[in-house]
Design a protein that fits this description.
The structure holds two protein chains of two kinds. Chain A has eleven helices and eight strands. By secondary structure, chain A is an alpha/beta fold. Chain A has one domain (5-295): TIM Barrel (Alpha-Beta Barrel). By secondary structure, chain B is α/β, with parallel strands linked by helices. In chain B, strand 4 (88-91), helix 6 (95-104) and strand 5 form a beta-alpha-beta unit. The chains are: A alpha/beta, B alpha/beta.
């Protein structure tokens, strides 16, 4: 069965690049296509968020199919918040039937953050259970409950890691569990505290985890001082050190400084042993991704026959 | 214990509007201890209700009484006379008590006067914390006495999630991250190995998700 482009890039040893799209709060295909068009050819695969921060948006699988039709490879995010194991397994089969190959497993932000704060949080599986469920479906051709799938399932399994959450010492062990559960690749939370990320990577290397899964470092280009402050104060699991805030504050052109910070970070990350690529999350600022990729020396992207 | 909070008085006043003879029935167990539905609260509620009705110029006869335990038939008999002479009963017991009343005195309506909130404990004066969901398959041995099902906002089995910061849950800084506490406690007892293995998906069929539950003990059945 053919591998996903992301899998091919990561397995080739090339430094991989993924992008991210947040679906709109509407059923407008052209809006999705417009945002995706900036990423076309600039990244190896594009994450599609799954009702991120518990805000209702167009389904990640539907958007994945739309960008697939444009020739862009999607990486569908699936959270445990909104669906039980019946719905998740059904959606994974549906996504695969549509030609979607990359699936990223997340727990999901709690519903109280979103625009339906009265919703029931499902969390039938946790994110590690979700990873092992997908692995079982793929490697054993079996559903969680034991029923056999009638045909093999071709998916590439991703997971997330947050080196900036607590307790810090335990984070690497949680990563180890995700990899043991079946994660093929890992995308981290956006890095702003490089020192902490490097300490985390040291622990990752000490356990040899970078050899068991491909670890991609998360990057968010900062568009404004307000955006940086908002993330620092309101986005769960995000650490933005004061020196980054101060740098933006001191800059005349905030956007240009944000891009500069992102490019410098990518350049630095490329030198860290065990990091297999970067995941650039420029949601609602997709048009900046080509410039960042160009300036960070990430282009052209590798192609495979 | 079962923790609850008395419903707002306005809600109780509205619920009993059509009735003239009202019995406010407290419970001497959990809701007494959590200061929400014991004898004192039953008296206070009866008095407040009576004043509100009189102010509105409507006649009312409110009595209050408290039984030792509202969730068992055998304790309800002592209230029979008061229940029978009332038009309606407002129970300040938990939802279990309200239902027991409606089943035992099925000719009489018993309305809830309390919102049952959770199974938990007082952590300090005036503060109660939820710590059990009654999932039917206890894991407290592995997590050294801290429940990830009840105390993690996402009921994670292999936590903590990426939203845990400075020991607090992403939902609120007022909530401790259960997994942070679990990891600290496991480290203290040198038992981090307890959570080294990936824990498989939980069997929720032992919980309410398997349908309303019933315990049948053949050894004590008559």
């Amino acid at each position: 069965m053919s591998k996903s482009n992301l899998q091919k890039v990561l397995e080739s040893g090339a430094f991989a690049v993924t992008g991210e799209l947040g679906p709109p709060k509407s059923a407008e295909r052209e809006v999705i296509e417009h945002h995706a068009s900036y990423l076309n050819g600039k990244v190896d695969s594009v994450n599609i968020t799954d009702n991120q921060t518990a805000i209702v948006r167009t389904s990640s699988i539907a958007c994945g199919k739309i960008i697939l039709d444009m020739g862009i490879e999607p990486n569908i995010q699936i959270t445990c918040r909104d669906r039980n194991r019946i719905a998740i397994q059904s959606d994974v089969l549906g996504a695969a039937a549509l030609g979607i190959k990359n699936i990223l497993c997340l727990q999901g932000d709690h519903a109280t953050f979103g625009n339906e704060p009265q919703a029931k949080n499902v969390n039938d599986l946790d994110s590690i259970n979700l990873i092992s469920t997908l692995k079982k479906m793929r490697d054993e051709q079996e559903l969680l409950g034991g029923d056999k799938l009638e045909a093999p399932l071709n998916i590439y399994i991703g997971a997330v890691a947050n080196p900036f959450a607590d307790p810090f010492e335990y984070r690497v062990h949680r990563l180890a569990k995700k990899i043991e559960a079946g994660a093929d690749f890992i995308q981290t939370q956006a890095i702003f505290d490089m020192e902490r990320f490097e300490r985390w990577m040291e622990q990752v290397r000490a356990l040899g985890l970078h050899k068991k899964a491909h670890i991609m470092a998360g990057i968010i280009p900062l568009k404004s001082l307000g955006a940086a402050r908002y993330m620092k104060n309101n986005v769960s699991g995000m650490l933005i050190p004061d020196h980054i805030i101060d740098r933006l504050k001191g800059a005349k052109d905030k956007k240009a400084e944000g891009v500069k910070i992102a490019v410098e970070m990518i350049e630095h990350i490329k030198t860290i042993e065990g990091v297999a690529g970067v995941h650039i999350m420029a949601v609602a600022w997709e048009e900046i991704v080509p410039e960042i990729c160009e300036r960070a020396g990430l282009l052209p992207r590798p192609t495979f026959d | 214990m079962i923790v609850g909070e008395r419903k707002p008085l306005a809600e109780i006043i509205k619920a009993v509007e059509p009735y003239e003879k009202i019995l406010i029935l407290g419970c001497g167990e959990c809701v007494t201890v959590c200061l929400a539905g014991g004898d004192r609260e039953a008296r206070e509620t009866a008095l407040a209700l009576s004043i509100a009705r009189q102010k509105a110029g409507k006649s009312v006869q409110v009595k209050s009484h408290t039984v030792e335990r509202q969730c068992e038939y055998e304790y309800l008999e002592s209230a029979r006379e008061l229940v029978e002479e009332a038009d309606v009963v407002v129970s300040l017991a938990c939802g279990v008590g309200v239902q027991t009343m409606n089943m035992y005195f099925e000719q009489k309506q018993t309305l809830p006067g309390l919102n049952t909130t959770f199974m938990g404990m007082p952590v300090k004066q005036g503060v109660w914390m939820e710590n059990c969901l009654g999932c039917g398959d206890c894991v407290l041995e592995e997590t050294l006495g801290i429940c990830p099902i009840a105390r993690c906002a996402k009921s994670m089995l292999n936590g903590p999630c990426g939203g845990s910061q400075d020991g607090k849950c992403e939902v609120s800084k007022d909530i401790d991250c259960a997994w942070h506490l679990i990891i600290e406690r496991l480290m203290r007892f040198n038992k981090l190995d307890n959570i080294a293995e990936v824990k498989p998906p939980k069997d929720w069929s032992t919980s309410h998700h398997g349908g309303p539950r019933k315990t049948i003990r053949e050894d004590v059945k008559l």
